[in-house]
Write a structure and sequence with these properties.
With 195 residues, the chain is α/β, with parallel strands linked by helices. Helices cover 28% and strands 21% of the residues. The protein has helices spanning 11-16, 20-27, 64-78, 96-102, 120-125, 142-153, and strands spanning 2-7, 32-37, 50-51, 61-62, 83-93, 107-112, 129-132, 186-187, 190-191.
């Protein structure tokens, strides 16, 4: 599976997506992750990617030109249009079922919004689906994108050592996992139950 991430801060992804399960999946080439700095695609000589909203209001809006150009670059590199996600507070709430459904796509591009949002023309013309990770505010879509990539990646065959482990995890069957314990059998007077 290939992920392309369009972000103003791609360096945020390097450590998180380079370690642990995702790092091993990348090393095995089960997953490929490409980071694209949206500023690199700006036609503005100062690499500006935002502007004031029409109609007034606080904050800045990400312009459509750099995002259209970045996605066009990804499409040319892959050879087809990828499935495009926008990390957005107005999107459908991400869950385990959605992670499983997204396994159907070999190429997923994630746009990480910033500032007060992105120009609506990007959403109307380029985005296949808007995704939210919950009803709270983040500085941008980067942290949300990392969570989505992690959740999807661990479901890909060959990523986890024990293939069945994701089948019995929390939320997979709509249930939470049972309490679990490890050695020692007693710690500071607290004992592992007999059953």
């Amino acid at each position: 599976m290939r992920f392309d991430i369009l972000s103003l801060f791609p360096s945020m992804f390097e450590k998180v997506l380079g370690d642990s399960i995702i790092g091993r999946a990348k090393d095995k080439e089960i997953v490929k992750i490409y980071l694209h700095n949206i500023r690199d695609f700006s036609d503005d000589k100062h690499k500006r990617v935002d502007d004031y909203p029409y109609g007034g209001g606080l904050g800045m809006i990400m312009q459509c030109q750099p995002i259209f150009s970045a996605l066009d670059y990804v499409k040319r590199d892959i050879g087809i249009k990828p499935y495009v996600l926008l990390m957005s507070p107005q999107g459908k709430t991400f869950n385990q079922k959605k992670a499983q459904l997204l396994l159907d796509y070999n190429n997923i591009t994630i746009i990480c919004g910033h500032y007060e949002g992105i120009d609506e023309r990007v959403i109307e013309e380029l985005v296949d689906e808007e995704i939210s990770i919950g009803d709270f505010i983040l500085t941008g879509g980067e942290i949300a994108a990392m969570a989505v990539i992690d959740s999807i990646t661990r479901l890909i065959p060959g990523v986890l050592k024990e293939e069945e482990s994701h089948c019995i995890e929390t939320f997979n069957n709509g249930l939470l996992e049972y309490p679990q314990y490890t050695r020692p059998a007693e710690f500071m007077g607290l004992k592992v139950p007999d059953v």
